[in-house]
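Troubleshooting log. The previous structure file for this entry was overwritten by mistake, so regenerating from the original sequence record. Sequence copied from the archived sheet and checked twice against the printout by T.R.
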Amino acid sequence: MNIVESIFDEDTRKCDDCGCTQDNACAGGCYWVTDSLCSECLAKRADHDLKIAPEYFKAVIQGLKTFEIRKNDREFQVEDIVNLKEFKNGKYTGRKLTVEIIYITDFEQKENYVVFGFAALLPNMN
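Regenerated output below.
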């Protein structure tokens, strides 16, 4: 196999966190969540469940909203996993979107507030 073929071969993927590959999976097994992250490493990252109003949830789904402004009572960090759960009239609608924090800043925010940018990981909406 030449180098060009190996670049496009899905079996050459490697997890950035643990180094597992298609042929050498994590103990107990894993699967690809992204091209460079396996399911076992995703499960080890900090996981936050956050409520989100329908109008903001819709904007996230449409790709128009890629950030959140939140009180930093959870010590958010880059690479944390966030489950954005849609709530309407105080009740969970059953729809959620899982995202990964890719950028965080507290510049020009109220005390103990942050802005974090995110990228969708698992579009597992019902």
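Helices lie at 3-7, 39-44, 54-61. Archived copy saved in two places this time.
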